[in-house]
Amino acid sequence: MYNSPVRNSVKSVLFVLCCAVAQAQAAVPAGLQQWIDAPQRSAENKARDQYRHPAETLGFFGLQPEMKVLEIWPARGWYTEILAPYLKERGELTIANFRRNDGTLEDDKKIFWAKLSARLDADIRKKPQHFGTVKSLEFDPPAMMQLGQVNYYDMVLSFRNSHVWNEAGYLLDVYRALFDALKPGGTLGLVEHRSSRLSEISSRAGEGYLDEYYVISVAQQAGFVLAERSEINANPLDTKNYPKGVYALPPTLAMGEQDKARYLAIGESDRMTLRFVKPVPAAQ
């Protein structure tokens, strides 16, 4: 069902106000904006800043230039091209790419993800002045779960990956692996497509969305403590009831030309933005 123009107008105003309040609450890390504005970023990627709010999101997570940061499944590297130059002088960025295709992959999705990972690795090698030195490892649960040294990273970041792990039945296992990789006191920053909350015990949404309280409970089960939630990446225009779920919305636009203008007007999905901390053990 289509919303009326008046209703859409009201929702749009609320969306802008919501984002403005959320963004005002997140301090932008010093020096980060220059890499968000960098000419190395494509116009297409910059056009998505209005939905992803990279400066405010990374500020909310507490990113600092001297940190050791692990980014999980960066895909085409939308965040990588911001994180890598920001960290290259004083910090360190590691990307946990999807596994390489050694000829044994049969699933079409996995083959596609492997191609994205190979392209990102190649792009990083071609542009050393922008990216600097970026470490890369393979991550494909449940077979490949090693994320480097235990208690190593200051921050682990995952953008819109949790629904994939949940659909495969590995969400808790992955969160435990992220927990092990972080230093005590380290931060896990999660952004994920958010389902509609119907009650304290139920939610509803199409494919690709997750209930926020469910994500929090799984992270807590893995050992994390929820530090803060943010509405930086909220989108009240997202009704979450499309024929192909979240993939009907941009950037995927899985419905093709069917109702394309409608989905473009909605924009990218409504997203939870969660900051967790790995507790520091009590002194013995």
Largest sheet: 7 strands, mixed
Give the N-to-C terminal Cα separation. Answer: 60 Å
- What's the architecture in CATH terms? 3-Layer(aba) Sandwich
Mean pLDDT: 90
Structure description:
With 284 residues, the protein is an alpha/beta fold. It has a single domain, classed as Vaccinia Virus protein VP39 (Rossmann fold), CATH 3.40.50. The chain contains 12 helices and 9 strands. The strands form 2 sheets. Strands 3-2-1-4-5-9-8 form a 7-stranded mixed beta sheet, sandwiched between helices. It has a two-stranded antiparallel sheet with strand order 6-7. The termini are far apart.
Properties at a glance:
284 residues; alpha/beta; Rossmann fold; 7-stranded mixed beta sheet; two-stranded antiparallel sheet; 9 strands; disordered N terminus
Could you give a quick summary of the protein structure above?
This protein is an alpha/beta fold and 284 residues long. It has one domain (5-276): Vaccinia Virus protein VP39 (Rossmann fold).
Write the layout of secondary structure elements.
Blueprint: H1 5-24, H2 33-36, H3 43-47, H4 49-52, H5 54-61, E1 68-72, H6 80-87, E2 92-97, H7 108-126, H8 128-131, E3 134-138, E4 153-159, H9 162-168, H10 171-181, E5 182-193, E6 196-197, E7 203-204, H11 212-221, E8 225-230, H12 260-266, E9 271-277
Parallel strand pairs: 1-2, 1-4, 2-3, 4-5
Antiparallel strand pairs: 5-9, 6-7, 8-9
